Write the C-alpha cells for this entry.
Amino acid sequence: MSAPIKPGLAADALLALLAPLGGVRDEADRWGLTVRVDRERLRQALTLLRDGADARFDQLLDVCGIDYLSYPDWRDPRFAVSYPLKSTVFRHRLTLKVLVEEDDVAVPSVHDLYASANWAERECWDQVGIVFQGHPNLKRLLNHHEFVGHPLRKDYPCQKRQKLSVNDPMIDQLTAKLIALGYQVLEAPVATAGLPLTTHGPIKETVS
Amino acid sequence: MTYQPVPAAAAVPEVSLGDAFVTTSVDAVVNWARRNSLWPFPFGTACCAIEFMGMVSSHFDVSRFGAELVRFSPRQADLLIIAGTVTYKQAPVLRRIYDQMLEPKWVISAGACATSGGFYDCYCTVPGIDEIIPVDVYIAGCPPRPEAFLEAIVQLQGRIDRESRKERALMGTPA
Amino acid sequence: MRVKKPDGEIVDLMTINIGPSHPATHGTLRVFAALDGETVAAAVGEMGYLHRGFEKMVEQGTYQMVLPFTDRLNYCSSMMNNIGFCKAAERMFGVELPERCVTLRVILLELSRMIDHLVCNGANLVDLGALTNFWYFFNPREQVYTIWERLCGARLTNTVTRIGGMYRDVYPGFEQEVLAVVTVIEDATTEVLGLIERNRIFIDRTRNVGTMDAAGAISAGWTGPCLRASGVDRDLRKDEPYYGYETYDFDTVIGTTGDTYDRVMVRMYEIRESAKIVRQAVARLKPGPLNCADARLSLPSRNQVYHDMEALINSFKLIYEGVRPPPGEMYDAIEAANGELGFLIVSDGGTNPYRIKVRPPCFTQWAAYPDMLTGSMVADVASSLGSINIIAGELDR
C-alpha cells in the first residue's frame, strides 16, 4: 500500500475496457472521463472496474444524483446518477453515469461492491428520489424522517419548509443491526414518545 | 422640641461593627450571584461554535465574567447559548434541552443563523430559534467575533441585574 | 432491550442516545447504541442535524455567490473549501493562474490545514480530558486568525478567493507574520507532543481503539489523514499534484494500525510537514500579477473600461451576470485537511450553477464510524469520534 502511485490507463484504454458493456463516452465531460452505461450493466461495469488488474478502481467517491428537468435542450431521461471512481493503485480517474427515466426511477444498489455506496445511495434517494434496488436501509439521511418530497429535484421549491414533530427513534435500525450481528431480539424497546414539538410559529412561506 | 441625637448605643447594633456589614435588597444579592456565575450550555452546531470556543480560550477568556464553567448537562447549566444553524431536524432536540433546564435560565442566540436562519433561506433551516424558544440576547454576525459574545454576556448580566423576584413569581416562573 | 447473544446468553441491553446534544459529538451527530454493560453491542448513526441546503442554495445564485457557502462547509479551514471550489471552476474555464496566485494559494492551503489539525486534535484531547492542549493549540490559532483578518477582513469565514484569482493581494508584512506564526504553531505542537506522545494514559486510551484496517478504509471510501493512518500512502498532493506541489519538499505521514493513536499522531506530524511547505512557498513568493487576465473572469482595468467599448461591455456583463462556465459537467478535487474534497459541477452555460455536488471527506468517515464502535467501550466512542474529524458543516452541507 505504500508504493508510489502508478500511471494507470489512458482514457482510450478505459473506454475500450467498458465498450463491451455498452459504455459510451459522455460528451458533457470535456475535462475528465465520464462513461455512460445502462443501469442493467452498472454492477457488471463496477465489478470489472474494481477487480480488473489494470483498472483497480477500489474507491467509490460519491453517488451523485442529477435532475435535468430544467436543463436547456435536454432530450435524454430526466435523471442521472454519477459515480466518480478513484484508485489507490493507479493514478487514473473515471466517472460512471447512469441515466434514469422519470417514470421508472430505479437503479441497482452497489452497496455490496463498495462500502461507501451505502450511505451515499441513501443521500441520493433522500435528495433526488432515485430508488436503489436492493439497498438494505433506504431511509432519509439528511432530511428528517417526516419530510415529504425530494428537495434537490428542480420542481421542489427552495423555501418550502417542513416541520418535524418528533425525532426518529431509530429502534428499527438498531434491532436490524443487532440481528445482523447474530443477536436474537426477544423484546424490543418501545419508543417513549418524545413530546411532539408544536411550539413552532407558523411557517412563514417566503416567496423568492 | 430641639433635635436630640440618638445615642450610639441605642442605634442599630451593626453600627458598632463598622464597615463589616452592607445593607442591600434580596434582589440585588440574588441577581449579583446569578450574573457572576452563569454556567453556559454551549449548544454549538456550526461555525459560531468555533468562535464560541475562541471566546472560552485563554485569549478572550470568558472566565473573567464568571461564565467559564461550561456544563453539557441542561440540568446543571443556566445559560443556553445556541451558536450555529438550527435545522428542523434539530428543533425538537433544542426544545427538549431548553425544557430540561431549570429556572432561572437565559438564552443567547449567537450568530445570524440562530437569530434568523442566516442566509440559508431554504427548506431545512428554522428561520430563527425564537420560533421555538424565548431568547434574551441576540448576537449578530456570521460568525460574531468572540468580543461580540462577551458583549452579549455583559448585556445579559445587565438584564439580570434588573430582574426582580417578585416579577418572576408573578409570571409563574420560580423566583 | 432483551436479547439472546450469539453465544446463547440472554441479557438486557441498554439503548442510549449519544448525541446530538453531547460534548463529544460536536453538537450535531447522533449515535444510537445498544450497550451490554460498558461495551457497545451495536450502534447506528444518524446525521443531517446541520443540513442547511448548500446544494439547493447555490442553485439560486451566481457562481461567485457560491463562495460564502463554501466557507461554511469545513469552517475550521474555510480557505481550503474556497480554493477547492475555485480550482474546480477554473478548470472548467481552462485558465492558468499566475504564479503569484498559485504560490499564495499554497500558503493559505497549508496554513489552513495546520489550523484544522489544531482544532481536530485540540477538541479530541479535550474529549479525552486533556484540557491543557486545547489552550496550547488555540492560542496560535488566534494569531493565524489575526493574519486572516488583516488579509481579508474575516477571522473564520474568509471567502478569500475568487474564480480566476484572489480577493485581494497580501498586506505588507504578511510573509514575516506567516513565518512567525508557523514557528509558534510548531512550538505548540512540540509542547503538546511532549505531553501526550509517551503519556501512559493517552496511549492506553487511544492505542487499538477505533481501529480501521486498510482494506476496510479503502472500501469505505476513506481519504486523507484517516486513510493514511491506516497505512495507505495516498495523498492528492503527491499522486495528482496541482499548484506546483510536486516541486515542494515534504513527506506524507503514514500510520501503521489505523487506531485513534495513529490518527492523532498523523495529524500532529502533518502540521510539521505543512510548516515545511509554507516556509518554502513564502520563499518563492515573488511580485507579479495576482489574477488571471482572462476576459471571462477578470474585470478589465478602469482605464480600458472608460476608453474601449468592448471592455465596457465585458465589465458590465461580469458585474451584472457573473462568470459563466461553458456547459458541461466535471468532477475535481483537492486534498483538504480531512481528505479528498471534491466538487461535481454541472453547468448549463448560464449564470447560475445547475448542480453542484460536494463530496465531503468526512462523510465516508462518519458512515463507517458506527460499525467501528461494535465491541468497543462507551468511553471509546468519544475518543475515536474526535479522531476522525467530523465537521458537521461539511458532513451535512
Observations:
- The two ends of chain B are 47 Å apart (CA to CA).
